[in-house]
Amino acid sequence: MARAAKGSATTAGSAKTAAEQAVKAALDPYRRKRDFAKTREPAQGGDAGVGGLRFVVQKHHARRLHYDFRLELDGTLKSWAVPKGPCLDPKVKRMAVQVEDHPLAYGDFEGDIPPGQYGAGHVIVWDKGQWLPEGDARSGLRSGKLKFELRGHKLQGRWTLVRMHGKARQEERQPAWLLIKEQDAQARPLDEYDLTEAEPDSVRSLPAAPGAVAPEPAPETAPKPARASRRAALPDTLQPQLATPADHPPAAAQRADWLWELKYDGYRLLTHIDAAGRVRCFTRNGHDWSARLQPLVRALQQLPVRACWLDGEIVVEGEQGAPDFQALQNAFDQGRTEAIVYWLFDAPFLAGEDLRDQPLALRHAQLQSLMQAVPLPPLLRLSEVFDAPPESLLAAAAKLGFEGLIGKRVDAPYQSQRSPHWIKLKHRLRQEFVIGGYTEPQGARSGFGALMLGVHAQEGSRRVLRWCGNVGTGFDARQLGVIHQRLRAHESSRCPFDPPPAGMHARGAHWVRPVLVAEVAFGQWTREGRVRHAVFQGLREDKPAREIVREAPGVEPAAAPAPAQARAVPTVRHAPRITHAERVIDRHSGATKGELVAWYAQAAAQMLPHLKGRPVALLRAPAGVGGEVFFQKHAKEQQLPGVRQLDPALDPGHAPLLQIDQAAGLLQLAQLNTIELHTWNARSDRIAQPDRLCFDLDPGEGVAWECVQEGALLLRTMLEELGLVPFLKTSGGKGLHVVVPIRRGPDWDTAKGFAQAVVAHLARTLPDRFVQKSGPRNRVGRIFVDYLRNGFGATTACAWSVRARPGLGVSVPVGWDELPQLRSGAHWGLRDAPARLAVGNTPWAAMARSSRALGGAMRVLGYTPGAD
């Protein structure tokens, strides 16, 4: 035993020595940079946090003000320099450059680092407290994603550090990270509260951070019931409350009466739990799906409640976390329902009490209490309610990949019918259709070519099924086979549509009995009542075909309007006669000239704000993509309707520049085989003074798309550090465009010189990622950030312009939070871009008020106009 004890002591001593040596090695870079005979900074030492790991944020007035963010781990303070300091807004991602580890004693350091020493300047302890890692902190640091909770005086709640390129690279001495606030109760919008400005002082004199002790539970804030609930026998069946379609949210004066939930793309499900705890799951039409949902039934049996009806939606989550309707259907088709998640949002009956007469706020509060009483199985979720402007929520829902929003009055009872107290707002057109037939497959395709779609409508005393177009995209090979088998089981010799499709639309059609229902997303309704740009989403088994009608905002389905009231491509005054509309202009996609003209008619309302007041250059392709093209900046033809010829004095020695202020001009140019439209960085009223900068991220050979995304984030962070506000759009080609609004004042040479200095700084700082020189040889494996677009007469593809490349990509404004979801610079093409028009220019809504003077940015960058 003595030998064992001695051996244990030796092992413990060896481990301690190894840990001390590891700390010493980690602090060597820190010590080499400092002369401790001159600076009061601690060389070593310091105590570990009591009761938990410590964090400290030091405000450092060095050559440039920054904030040093430090986390205790393995005997040192892991450290990052955050130039602009932490921010409580989850939408704002702050650059954090990892620097050398610091000794634990540094967490208490305040004072002056003397001139001539590394980091010379004044230091204060701006915040301090405890930090709690989520999972293994060391693993998180190695993998490049560290999630944690802060309990400080100023910083609290959940945070994340993300390394900007994932795993560490050996050649990087100071890896770039992003410090991001997670969405929780401590999050606050930056335009509402700027923490670094509001609380600039030291916290050294304050006691331990209040968050170091777990906070008391928040008091119950749910409203009191307007009426007493009542004990009642649990009914065997229950019809769900349904939402009414709406095309806009309630008036501003009524917003306080509404709460908002995400609209889940799945199947509605009602759960009945009897007094003995037996669980049964029903569709909205009363079909018992308990046997098909056994994993979910087992999860529901774990809820500590009896005698209740619960209401919600079942979904399967896609790769990005948003519901994937096709994946849900596949789960049922394959009998694999273990991944189906149940989002609960209402409790009409709970614990033997009938809550249907109670206000929504109370029902939701009681459901929340139930689901927080015990740890929940991962298949059960509580649908979160939002008290926020629905316009911003709808845009956020679109970016997250959700179908839209459900609005609910907080004071309304639960009604087993379609009710105006629940409304649904969609950011894209999507609804169910009855399948009335199918067409023959073409080429190598098997099964069928397209499904023929219809909706029911009332014609006097008759209820008829109207044909409203076909859907031929969105299927994979397996679906083509499975759906074809189901179609053949319902084949009929009689056309179910009234009136029947005529001419080419009926050629080779196979009719089926109208019993199958398809869910379809589409771009718009035409004037004739047809769907355009339709994409199949899946078959629906929870809705009977007889109920399917044309959905119209604010109108219950039974009273859906006739097709003549459908939305159509906008009518454009002075629109030209389009010749050779059937001519294919892109062999890759098969798109025609007529489709191109139709796009510019649809997109005109979103595109004109980017064109108005700016000279425009045209890329014309008479032979289509792949043929000879030419670039036109000046007038060549006679005056065209909607195309303005500017004063020749704006560009002396040349024919007049062109400007497009009307939709008719777009169509005139499309008729003349114009595919791309490019705009200047200045307006024609002050053409000598640009009002924006454009940076085109052009990846060289061998650059992965993820590196382009990362490059855009790095450029954004640098521009923000300079005090500018960058905006993002897809290029429609290989890369991305970063657009920066500036106040008019600098001339073209100054603007271009500044842009070049920005790119030069990037190339010097990160030479393995960026290159300053153009040319294919120079940018192999790297990104050329094209600053040359900022000179007089230079242009960049206009937002919403089609690009003359295979596939006809479209340049689309996007939000920075959408960047991770983009698949390429041509994320949208001619045929799927119409669905994006519902989002429109919302990601750039703040551009007009985001212009900044360039002088401050030039001073921070150290750029002097005219200097070599």
From TrEMBL:
Start-end of Low complexity biased regions: 223-233
Keyword Transcription regulation: no
Keywords: ATP-binding, DNA damage, DNA recombination, DNA repair, DNA-binding, DNA-directed DNA polymerase, Exonuclease, Hydrolase, Ligase, Manganese, Metal-binding, Multifunctional enzyme, Nuclease, Nucleotide-binding, Nucleotidyltransferase, Transferase
EC number(s) on file: 6.5.1.1
Cited CDD domains: Adenylation_DNA_ligase_LigD_LigC (cd07906), OBF_DNA_ligase_LigD (cd07971), PaeLigD_Pol_like (cd04862)
Origin: domain of life: Bacteria
GO molecular-function term, one example from the UniProt record: ATP binding
Domain ATP-dependent DNA ligase family profile as annotated: residue spans: 342-426
Chain positions covered by the region annotation Disordered: 197-233
Catalytic activity: ATP + (deoxyribonucleotide)n-3'-hydroxyl + 5'-phospho-(deoxyribonucleotide)m = (deoxyribonucleotide)n+m + AMP + diphosphate
Cofactor(s) the protein requires to work: Mn(2+)
GO BP annotation list: DNA recombination; DNA repair
Name the UniProt record assigns to this protein: DNA ligase (ATP)
